[in-house]
Amino acid sequence: MSDYNPYQAYEEGSVASEHPMRLVVALYEGALGAVQNAGRCLEGGDILGRSKAVNKALRILTELLISLDCEKGGEISLSLKQLYGYMQTRLVEAHVRQSAAPLHEVEKLLATLIEGWRGASSGLPHTAVVKEELAGPAYEPELETAGMPYAAYWSEPLETRSGAVFSF
Fold first, then answer.
1. What phi and psi values does residue 166 have, to the nearest 5 degrees?
2. For the chain, which domains are there?
3. How far apart are CA 55 and CA 52, in angstroms?
4. How many helices (H) and strands (E) does the chain have?
5. Left if phi > 0, otherwise alpha if psi is -120 to 50, otherwise beta: which for 69?
6. Beta partners for 158?
């Protein structure tokens, strides 16, 4: 018997109903926060904290990377793929060399991406309008979803109220 956590259920439901473009912004914000935390840990000499923060940023970038659909996204997806890989390399370099410069570079790149995605998603509804056949099963407390990658929540195209289809 698994422990039912109502707060986790609420959070998972909120994430599952959010528009995919807003999820991308949330992931970028999480990565940016982790990179900033890594910088604070570097300055404070907290090696374990820096390691955790860098790993969190790397995991988020990995989720963004695997969610790309290079066939549908074309050149933009390919460019993002290269950029995510570059940022991951710089994060590892910052951690290994204990250097703040790569962290600052990744921080600036993420801030620019956040600004662009916020602008692109500003007119979208706060929740995704999902066709019934694309909607997932109802939440079941015994279903283990803690290890589910963020991309699993929006791997299927979702329709917006305007009828546009998004796929990453």
1. -115, 135
2. 15-132 (1.20.120.340)
3. 5
4. 5, 2
5. beta
6. 166
